[in-house]
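TA notes. Do not distribute before section.
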Amino acid sequence: MAYRDASQIWRRSLAAGAALSIVAPSINGQVQYQATNPNPIAAFSINADAHPVFVDFDGDGDDDFFLAGEAREAATAQEDALQYYRNDAGSYVRASGRFPADLDAADLIAEDDQLEVNPTFVDFDGDGDLDAFIGFGKGGIRYYRNDDAVMTPSPSENPFTADVDSAFVANSLSPAVGDVDGDGVLDLILGNGNNVSFFENSDTGYAKSDDFSSFSIFSDDSSPILFDFDEDGDLDMLVGNKYGNLNYFENNGGELTEVDDHTLSNLNIGAYIHPAFTDFDGDGDSDLILGSSDGGLSYFRNEGGEFERVASNELGVTNPNSWIRPALFDYDSDGDLDIFLGTEQDDLVLWRNDDFTFVEDTASNPFNGVDFNLNVKPTFVDYDGDGDVDLLATLGGEFEIYQADNGVYTEITDTLQNPFHDLSSQSDQAWVLHDVDSDGDLDAILGHKSGGIDYYENNGGVYTEPVDNPFSGIDVGAYSIPTFADYDDDGDMDLLVGNENGEIHVFLSDNGAIPSEELEIMADGYVPRGHSALAVGDLDGDERTDILVGTQVGELLFLHNTSLGASTDLIDRSEQMLIFPNPASDLIQVDAVWNQGKADLFVHDLNGKTLLHQQVFGEQNQLRVATLPKGVYSLELRNETTRAVQNLVVK
């Protein structure tokens, strides 16, 4: 799916006859978003399987940057899969390639049009400049001699051929070359589709050494690098793999020993990660850059030996883990949306919103210390209708309920009391509750690995799958993650769906109908990262619904709603409206002397969802709010020319 800048106006379809909008889009009736990413590494990406390498290629004393990916066509292999950025006074500038256009790999690309490119650089011929070895997804390792900054293929000088060892033509090869054992000659560490092996350089050439057989602990698609991390004069090793793990090995007298509790070993960013070190921020220590399968990079700044993820959003919200699944909920009932992050590491993290400054809050987090399961996806909703907002936690194929009672959450462990237990056999489940059929109760909507949307109708608390699925026409490819929000601010709930490729699919509802018409989102600057999970609400206090995007690699992206405000369409008389009592538990009265005719009275939650709607007449009107859960809401009174909005507290 394409993402169009604001200047590229394109609409697939837009529901006709929408009500007058609170938010007035500035271009052709479309809601506009700006992706704001202050992380400097976000400027760099490649088609897939990002493999960063930082070396002083031009010999000027600072690290230049190669970013490798997948070669898909021989003619553009270097352009697409091995980008070169020269370091100019701390700024990385794209420079012309130094390798052959086809990487001397046309034969391999003909066999595999998604050919992994895994380079490493070392002065192999001892002439004072950096030569290169490239390990390919198929076809082995090839050697490129540096001839005055031109990388020349030299098969005759390549020591890593099938004649030497069949391992050199295995799949998913990722080499690292350096003097590991301190004998003055260059050894080879080789990652492949199964593990990591050590090939010692001796008088008879390269031979696999049994001394490093413990490396077989590594899993699929291992990606090693050699680097003197502890600055003791020898080369240590860091290895990424298919499952997003990092394993750190310290070199002690030529022997590499794993350090389990090292700060590097506690990081995990999703899948197929390739690590690299460089002093990215210029403060004198080595920072960590991680490439991943979606072609993007993650930046962990070295802060006194601890590596901290640099935020990819202007809110400053981060988490070191992977598979981030956000949810928005005014947990402390102060009138703004707090952020809960589900992660791969069994936990649910709270970032409290204090006047739109977000602070990680462990002490107030009711789920601190709760051991969930892998890849928890939180949903906050009053599922049992008792006035308290409960937590529904999707855990892969499980669905757990934490029932709220005055702010205290208790897990329902009896599966007979869990109406969602074993409801579906789909894998990678992502549930959300919404009143689809407008009968006053919450139905269950399910996204899953296959990319479709399943529907379970609520009949008196029993969820059943009807013969006709109203969402059967929706298929976003794979790993669908649905959420409902009033995207176009017309008073009814639209469907937004994330997917494996990080795309955002928007399906509009027309006057309360089931969302079906797809609208292409206008998100200037949005660079998708894999497995997007969406949370929608006003996160910066401008009364517009923003989008928070969690990702597999742990980056949390923020799409700021930049549509024009309501002042361009309606007169704002919020200060000339009175709500009493407020807080309230049942009946409220709304007084507005400026309203002398017909008007609409709405109650919205902080995500923008319309919970109550009543047509009214004149300057004094009443509304019952007893059915609403305790919390803070937005009450809006609107006629053809004027509107007023105030907070309403239900106790």
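Switch to the second chain here.
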Amino acid sequence: MAERGKTKFIFVTGGVVSSLGKGLAAASLGALLEARGLKVSFLKMDPYINVDPGTMSPLQHGEVFVTDDGAETDLDLGHYERFVETRMSKRNNCTTGQIYDTVIQKERRGDYLGATVQVIPHITDEIKRRIRLAAEGCDILIVEIGGTVGDIESLPFLEAIREFRWDFGKENVVYAHVTLVPYIRTAAEVKTKPTQHSVKELTSLGIQPDILLCRCDQPLDKKVKAKIAHFCNVEEESVISAPDADPIYQVPLNYHEEGLDQRVCEKLNIWSGQPNLSKWKRIVKTAQNPKLTLNVAIVGKYVHTVDSYKSVHEAIAHGAIANEAKVVTDYVDSEELEKGGVPERLANADAIIVTGGFGERGTQGKINAIRYARENGVPILGICYGLHMMVIEAARDLLGLPKANSTEIDPNSPDPVIDIMASQKEVSQKGGTMRLGAWPCNIKQGSLAMSLYRKNNISERHRHRYEVNNDYRERLEQVGFVASGLSPDEHLVEIMELKGHPWFLGCQFHPELKSRPLDPHPLFRGLIKAAVSRRVAAQPKHPKVRELRSVS
């Protein structure tokens, strides 16, 4: 457990509206502090009663980010991992459901004998215990409170962090509040009243923010900052402009220019040198000065909520940066491709990604997209369920098995080329029971996968119940669809690729979860490189694009 004076704490809250980017703000601040030589970690506290987001629809919650140790967590942990070196784990995300479950189990064991179990102190004490646990081994713990100040669900978390300053001392705790300063076009004015009311709501709960991160269209001028400082009882230097940025990796640089990291260090009595931001500057410069522009189609069933594929989107950006290119992403509803018009819909795609998912809806559209890519030589990456659809398409169109399917879709298929894992057959509960977390994979020599990874053994993160049926592996390999990555016991297919195609690869794991702007994932770097080659071949007048092995 963290001891008083050993770890410093930064609590990030949000007000006015949701989706202001608290996670990105927290991650960017973490990047700045890490660049100063500090060891930074994070904790995301979600007020919902679900134990984790694993059973929630991506259309409601966005993607589920899986850690190496198998935790199904909030997508903000993806932001954290993309901005700092620290890898997240189960202890870096907790929910109201987990907190109450732990307290109720303690009550049933008799840990509270003689006491009336209440929100204060028992629930708040458990929240504080989780914070201390997450702080082990780091200099700075940044704690993001999910939801918006004023929500009933988040009140116990806000009370716990209010108490934290008394427990650990003012010199060890900073409160940063992310708020909205909208520009009203009809009045041609920036309005500070939403921020004033949000801070008023927070102070009514006993928390006076030390720093305000003001989301806005354009940087705030000195006059507006002075007004916010006056009415919100904060120092003017602690009113930080947080304008929109493209790419998002510009955000740490913007915050540094505003003096955010310096203010935090002053308030926490941290002595450190100026941050080394050269790598972030190089990333931004490369992203803002591409040699050419590509189109990548993302085919999925949750495309109407872009956060459903947040890590995929960012991994594409990383691959683009590594190839000095800009990618325009086209989110394609797989159900739309079931109605026909596939060539027209995908005609402009320099590469295609078929995403993960569950259930029958939209699967034929994914298969149609895969067939189009195979027949037209378009680079394509299939992720998890995308691999399954690749296998089904190959079985139907190359092996001549028209009823080939996954038992997830058709339990009575005569050719179940995708089947449930043996270890999953007796599982009845849905939450937290899939094959989760990092698992090893051995890559075959001479394969496309080997040329991308350049090593024999890898570890990737998984989230699935179904697998390629080994009874069909040999037949698939006879038509050129080979298993180039296998589990160490060779029982589970991890990677498959199609011989004779420019770039056709499917993987059982989720490579996007391990991609970083400073270290793009090999599969995304390779896919974008193949897309560049396709575009340059079609338009030979483009300047030659030099692939960057790494921007670190």
